[in-house]
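Good morning,

Both structures are done.
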Amino acid sequence: MKKYIEIASASTKLGLTSFGGPAAHLAYFREEYVQKRKWLDEKLYADIVAICQFLPGPASSQVGIAIGILRGGIIGGVISFLGFTLPSIILLVLFSAFLISTNSFDSGWLQGLKIVAVAIVAHALLGMQKTLAPDRIRISVAIACAILTLLIPSIAGQFSILIAAGLFGFIYFRSDENEPAPNIRLPFGKTTSIIAWILFFGLLIFLPLLKPFINSTYYLIFDIYYRVGSLVFGGGHVVLPMLQREVALSPDVFLAGYGAAQAVPGPLFTLASFLGHATAGIPGALIATFAIFLPSFLMVIGILPFWSAIRSKKGVQNALKGVNAGVVGILLAALYDPVFTSSVKESSDFIIVLITFTVLFVFKWAPYKVVLVSAVLGYLFQLI
C-alpha cells in the first residue's frame, strides 16, 4: 500500500506542475523519479524514453505509465497514469470554460507558464547529455539529429532520424564491450504482454468494422479516440489536425480546447476530455479520455516484458547508444521549436528564461517553484 501512496503522491504532483509539453514532461519526470526519488537510474530511464519515442501516442504519458508499472505493477501504472492525467482533465474542463468566457488567452501569467518550459527543457538537456551523449561522437550525433529534425520537421522525418542514429550506433560501436542490460522486474510475464497486444490490435481492427451496426454516439466517440491514440506519432500537437478531420465540432471549439490544453499541466492528449465533453457531456469526456490513452497502456504492458531480452543483445545496445544520442538531439531541436519559438517573443520573455534557468540550474530550486515564479514574472511584466 505504501508504494501505491508514493506513486500517487509523485504522479499527482507532476500532474499539477508539469507545464510545457512532452519535452518538459520528460524533464520533470527525470527530476522527480531519477534524481529525487531514485526509483530508477539514468540508463533505465533513457531506455524507457527510447522505447516510448518509437511508440505511437503520448510519449510522456507512456513513460509515466512504464515507471508506475516498474514501481507497483499494473496497478501502479494505473495510479501513475491517473495521478499525472486526472488533474489536467479536471483543470481543462474548468479552465477552458474560464478562458472562453473571459477571453484570457493572452494573459501575462499564462505566458509565464509557457516560458518556463524553456528553462526546464534546457536544464534537462544538460543532464541528459552527460549520460546519453558523454563523448564527442555522440555529441556530434545529437547535434546532427537536432539539425536534421529542424530541417525535416515531420513525424516521418523524426522517426527516420532515430532509425538512422540507431544504424550509426549499431555500426560505430560494434567493437564496444557488451553492457549489462538494465534490470526490469515485472509482476507479470509475456503471457500478459501477448494478451495486451491482442487487445490492442483487436480493438483497432474490429471497432471500425462494427461501427455500421452500432448506432451509438458513445461507441463512435470510443472508436474515433481509440484510433487516434493508436496511430498518432509525434505527441499532442499532432492530435489537433487528426481530430479535426474526425470530430464534427466547429473550429472555434477546437482552438479554444487546444489553447486550454496548452495552458494546463499534464499531457496535451487531454484535449480529448474537452472535445468529448463538447460532444456528449461528462460521459463523452470520460469515454474520449479513456479511449485515447488506452492504446498507450496496452502497448507499454505489451513491450516491457520483452525489452530486457531485446536490450541484452549487443547489437541492440550499440544501436541504442545512437538512438539515445538522437533523442538528445531531438529534444535539443524541440527546445528551439516549438518550446522557444512559441514562448519567447520579447526581451522580457527572455529575461524570464534567464531568471528561471538560474534558479533551477544554479540554486537547484524544485521545478514547481520555478513554474510559480515564471507565472508571477509573466504577470508582472504584463503590468509594466
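Second structure follows.
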Amino acid sequence: MLNKINFLTAGESHGKGLLGIIEGIPSGLEIEQQYIDFHLSRRQKGFGRGARMKIEKDSAEIYTGVRLGYTLGSPIGLIISNLDWPNWEDTMATDKQNKEQKKITLPRPGHADLAGIMKHEFDDIRNVIERSSARETTMRVALGSICRKLLEEFDIHVASYVTQIHNIQDSKESHPYDINKINAQADLSPLRVLNKNIEDEMINSIKKAQNNGDTVGGRFKVLISGAPYGLGSYTSWNKKLNAKLAEAICSINAIKGVSFGANHASDVFGSQLHDEIEYENGKFVRTNNNAGGIEGGMSSAQPIVIRMVMKPIPTLIKPLKSVDIHTKESKDAHKERTDACAVPAASIIAESMLCFALADALLEKFGGDSLDQLKAHMQATAKY
C-alpha cells in the first residue's frame, strides 16, 4: 500500500549478492554509505545468531541515484555482496552445470519449503530456500535506512527494543528513556533489552535452545516520535496509517502478530482506555497514549507505539518429522544453517520497514520533488 515510494529487492541467500532499488525519494537528501552500513551492522548483532553472521560483513555500495553525497530524485540502486558466495559458486551458478547438484527433498515444518515447491512446481527445495531466507531483509534494512534519513530531516525518529525472549518477559510497560535515545541504549545489550535484570535469564534460555538443537522467538516494541497530525487517512481503507504500518511489519519473516498502543486494550472498559483530550499552551494534548499515536487511521501527534510477535525460526538443528517430496517416505526435515534466536535482528528490520511506510505517508500528505519543497510544504501546513 505504498503510493509515493516504491522499492524492490532481488537476490538469493547464497548467490553473488543482493540488489535493491528505491524510487520516490526527493532530491537533495544527504546520504552516505557509512550511514547505511551502520544500520546494516545493527541487524547483524544479537546473541543467538548463527555462523553466517560471522562470515558476512554487510556493506551497501550506492550504485545509482546519488551524486556528491546527495540524492538526485531518480531511482537509487544499492548492491550488497555476499562474502559467502565463493563457497556456493557451483550450487548457485546461474549457467547450466554439467555436474548434477544434490537436491533438497525434505521440507521444514513452519518454513516456505512445501508451499513454495507446490506453487512453482519445483523438485528441489533449494529453489525456495534461497529466496524465502531472511537474508533478503538485509537489503530492506539498507533501503529503509534511506527512508530513515529522510524522516530524521523532520525530527521523526524510529526506535525499538526487545520485550520478551521465549517465555521471559520484561514486566515494565515503559522505561525512562527518551525515544530518541532508546536505540543507543538498546544497542548496548546483546539482546537489545532495556531491562538488564532479565538479560541473563534470556541469554540462558537461548543457550538452552542451542544445546537442544532448538530455537526461540519473542516480542519487541517499536516507538516512533515526531509524527505530525494527519499522516494516513480515515477516508479510505487502503490509506489508513495503521494498515500501512501493519502491512510493512507482517511482510517480515516469522512475524506472527502486530498490535498498536496499550497492551491491555481488550481487558478494560472503553472509559478506562480512551485518551482524554485537554488543551494546553496552544496545543491539544492527551492524558495518556493508550491509542498508540493513531486514531481513525491517522497519526495524532503522539508517539506511535507498535508491538510485534515473532515465532521461533523453523530451521532446527534437531529437525521435526517431514516427508520426502520424491519418495513420500517419512524422515527428519532438512537441516540448514540457522540462528537460535533472531528477535533482536527482527526489531531492526521492523524499524526499517516502518520507515518505508512512514516516509510514504509523509510524502503523500505534504509532497515535493526536492527536500526543500517537502520541508516548505510541511512547515506551511503541518500541525505540531
